[in-house]
Amino acid sequence: MNQSGESLRDRKKRQTRTALERATVRLAAERGYDNVTVEEIAAEADVSVRTFFNYFASKDEALIGADPEAGPRMAERILAFPGDVTPFDAYRRSVLAEITDELNNARDLWLLRKDVVMQRPDLLVRAFANSAESEQLLASAVAARAGLPESHLYPRLLVSAGSAAFRCAVTRWAADDSLALGDVVGEALDLFGAGLAHVPPYHHEGGTS
Amino acid sequence: MNQSGESLRDRKKRQTRTALERATVRLAAERGYDNVTVEEIAAEADVSVRTFFNYFASKDEALIGADPEAGPRMAERILAFPGDVTPFDAYRRSVLAEITDELNNARDLWLLRKDVVMQRPDLLVRAFANSAESEQLLASAVAARAGLPESHLYPRLLVSAGSAAFRCAVTRWAADDSLALGDVVGEALDLFGAGLAHVPPYHHEGGTS
DNA sequence: CTGCAAACTTGCAGTGACTGCAAAAAAGTC
DNA sequence: GACTTTTTTGCAGTCACTGCAAGTTTGCAG
């Protein structure tokens, strides 16, 4: 019964996973991240506490909705671009594509996460701390594309810059409703691309930049 | 009795603080970070567990030796440079100065921390997660110097890039004994300064870069 | 549809980080 | 030496997280 690629089991697993994720985000946004216990989250999703930890290694991970496939997916994307695309561009496009997908799939969740992040900005950093494994994958992909050894600083810096861009962008996005998250991330990556030695122009009071 | 600027009390506090820090790092390097309990650390430093938590908010903080004065100190340095120094250079120099000082004061600790980080790279990221407050200070200083509003992406990105540079540099430093940490951080910051769109040259097997 | 194996869920008991509180012990002051 | 302010400590409690050993559900073959 897996011609559709997804058995009953798989479907149920996906369901509990997203139920837990949504419960976590919803409750955290509603009454503050650390006023919510895993027990409450599990109850909300109608599973046992132990099951929560079968799906997520930590409360943090559930909040951010850590997707174990995101790393491999992005790495593949990076390598799939035609040869004349620079490593930076490949990485940049890959990140933006991922964000677009994510927002299309769960924009509502990100709106709630925004509230949580506004209360506790450190959560975003902490959540990214656990993705060292994925980052390693991305760094390898970048290294391959750039013709550099894995030990080189550049690939790791580029990937770190990516998550920094994302984190800063979320903060900025949270503060200004009128912006699209993808655009802000793109802008941040551009600053990294152009070099931080170059201070970007800023027109006081003149939003046509 | 505080003409020397430091009373008995202050001296003792400093002593317990560094004793706890050293105990944490030493034990963690010796037998692995999570095979060490706070109870053991406290015992090693001859204080109670409760006292440990009077000095450090978490085990992570003790491992990294989080210095609450580092943020203000660096911010001050950034603002103190003459006016013709660019924001990037001011930040860069400030970071390198801090690292130099730190290594001069506690090089042995950093050598041990290196071992711990090699076992668990995520600890470094997590440790930096709690410094959101300091980062805000630095970002403000950079913003002031760059003539940008605090809400602008640039200052935050520069500061994030700084910690990314530091984290990547430590990793690289841990893997190659022959390098000086300060140099690697400087190199990383230079890559950020020049722009990541530019892939650095790499001479296969020719260390004259 | 039955019986078996693999995957998933659950409860339970335990560890360890971390907190608030109130009392003991120093340290500084006069 | 009494008095105030800090610092240390013990204690009780909460909560995240883990390993283990059932119990339950799903997949599959006969």
Please give a handful of descriptors for the protein shown.
mainly alpha, Arc Repressor Mutant, subunit A, Homeodomain-like_sf (chains A, B), homodimer, transcription cis-regulatory region binding (chains A, B), HTH_TetR (chains A, B), 209 residues, Tetracycline Repressor, domain 2, DNA-binding, DNA-binding transcriptional regulator, AcrR family (chains A, B), 2 domains
Overall description:
The structure is a homodimer of 209-residue chains. Chain A is mainly α. Chain A has two domains: 11-63, Homeodomain-like (Arc Repressor Mutant, subunit A); 67-194, Tetracycline Repressor, domain 2, CATH 1.10.357.10. In chain A, 71% of the residues lie in helices and 0% in strands. Chain A is built from ten helices and no strands. In chain A, α1 packs across α2 and α5 (70-80) packs antiparallel against α6 (87-119). Chain A is globular, with a radius of gyration of 19 Å. The model of chain A has no long low-confidence stretch (mean pLDDT 92).
